[in-house]
Amino acid sequence: MKSVGRIIRVGMLIGVLSGPTDLLAQNPSGAPVPAARVYLPVGGLSDDQDPNTSRDLLPDDRPLTGAQIPTVGSTSLRHSYWVPGFEYGNLARSASFQNPTATDWISTSYVSGNLSLLQAWPHAQFDLDYSGGGFFSTDSVVGNGQYHQLGLVQQFDWRRWQLAFLDQFADLPEAQFGFGSGTNLGLPGIGGSPGGALPSLQGSYVPNQSIYTAVGPRYSNAFVTQIGYRTSPRSSLTLVGSSGILHFTESGNIDTNDVIASAGYNYEVSRNSTIGVLYRFSAYHFVGQPQAIGDHAVQFAYGRKITGRIALQLFGGPEITQLRVPIGTSDQYISGSGAANLIYTVTERTDLSTGYTHGVSGGSGVFSGAISDQVQGSLVHQMSRQWRGAIQFGYSRNGPISQSGAQNSPRYSSWFGGANLQKALGRSARISLAYTAYLENSSVAAPSAGYTQHQVALEIGWHTLPFVIH
Questions:
Q1: 431 burial type by CB count under 10 A (0-12 exposed, 13-18 middle, 19+ buried)
Q2: CA–CA dist 441, 451 (Å, integer)
Q3: Phi, psi of 14 (to 5 degrees)
Q4: Buried-exposed string 214-242: b where 16+ CB fall within 10 A, e elsewhere
């Protein structure tokens, strides 16, 4: 736990020194999050205005070939402010990832303090979202412990140049994939930045955690630096560098470090449509393992944005993977990689979001590198001023990089899906009830190869009204 504490302090220090921008309202696996319309800038609402029907949005100007998933827009800022809050969540489960053979239902309670902060200047913006506290379980295998989540973004905008620093940290007792589904436990801060719609990181830049078999507490971090330069009114260049870690506090899992660099060109073919080309190099190293991976991907990209309506990204192209330790008789494999992200406002009160990635990943603590497919999304409907309902889902498939040279290696398929109902208690509190099913199948012929869990979650969240900074 000392190492965890050091990582937390380092992550917070990086955030303070670099300062944040748009928070990473990161869904556990990089899936996009719909435009947040619950918390608006100070002074943005009259007492009788429904906050969830506001469509006064500013266009999203993030580059197509950058590290962030775009949104349908964000609300304009009238003040800088900070908002503290409190959250309690109880997860009642038919089993746990740490103890999948349990026969009695398990109760785990999470108690945390939350903070969301937004500071804006004429050419810069800083966002911080943090949640931290403890959990207490009736299962002795799960036990008691602490958890933390932190998202930071610092963005600078000039006439031609754009510079952003982004950091996302999580210290959780289990995999991020589907963690806290149907609640805000999987998001840092008060449940999305009060400034409005904030993007997630592209799945390629987030340490993959989509295999439930990798059990036990773990901490992960992704730090990204992004530089953009507008070469003409229609074209721009984007450079991205990132470093990531996924480390487990218990033995039996594979710790991963990664370094990723990419360069992209964007061209606006029309007011709403952009095309681009992207080259990305990813290096994966595995603590205590002889294997290392160098992965090269070239992707062609298409994006379409209509403010308040749709944000779409499509990527696809060849991928060349080089291995330090050959698998079978070869140390190089040629395949394809791709991604798709969609945020769509179906109606004034209904939002759909989904994201898909395919390609080489770090292996989720089970493999020393893997070929991964992952899709995740949600459909949210605002039924009235107080009531909101949603369904959420996720699916992942992970297998060895060499399909011909590792026939005996296991392959994992993981699912989660469920629904939730949330009621607003005034302007500062909420209560929600959710059901989620988790399943995992493996090609390993063993009694523990299959896994099913049912989860019922009750969450209560509260935050103050925003404290104006200026």
A1: middle
A2: 7
A3: -60, -45
A4: bbbbbbbbbbbbbebebeeeeebbbebeb
Task: Give burial (CB, 10 Å; 0-12/13-18/19+) of 271.
Answer: exposed
Output the pLDDT for position 408. Answer: 63
Residue 278: helix, strand or coil by DSSP? strand
* Reported CATH class of domain 2-468: mainly beta
Using the Cα atoms of residue 274, residue 279, residue 285 and residue 291 in order, give the sign of their dihedral: positive
Residue 47: partners with Cβ closer than 8 Å, 6 or more residues away: none
**In 138-255, which ranges are E strands?**
144-157, 161-172, 218-230, 235-248
Output the average pLDDT for the chain. Answer: 85
360 by Cβ neighbours in 10 Å (0-12 / 13-18 / 19+) ranks as buried
pLDDT of residue 8 exceeding 80: no
Closest CA to 57 of 75, 36, 77: 75
Question: Sorting pLDDT into bands at 50, 70 and 90, what band is 390?
Answer: very high
Give domain limits for the chain: 2-468
**Residue 427 is encoded by which pair of tokens?**
């302007």
Mean per-residue pLDDT for 416-440? 95
- The Cα 228–Cα 337 span in angstroms is 24
Tens-digit pLDDT profile for residues 70-86: 889 887 777 889 999 99
Q: Which residues contact 197 (CB under 8 A, 6 or more apart)?
A: 34, 35, 36, 37, 57, 60, 71, 72, 73, 74, 75
Closest to 183 (Cα-Cα) out of 287, 263, 109, 266: 109
What predicted TM-score, i.e. pTM, was given to this entire model?
0.85
Give per-residue pLDDT as tens, 396-406. 999 988 764 45
What number is the average pLDDT over the span 341-367?
A: 95
**Phi, psi for 19 (deg, rounded to 5):** 70, 145
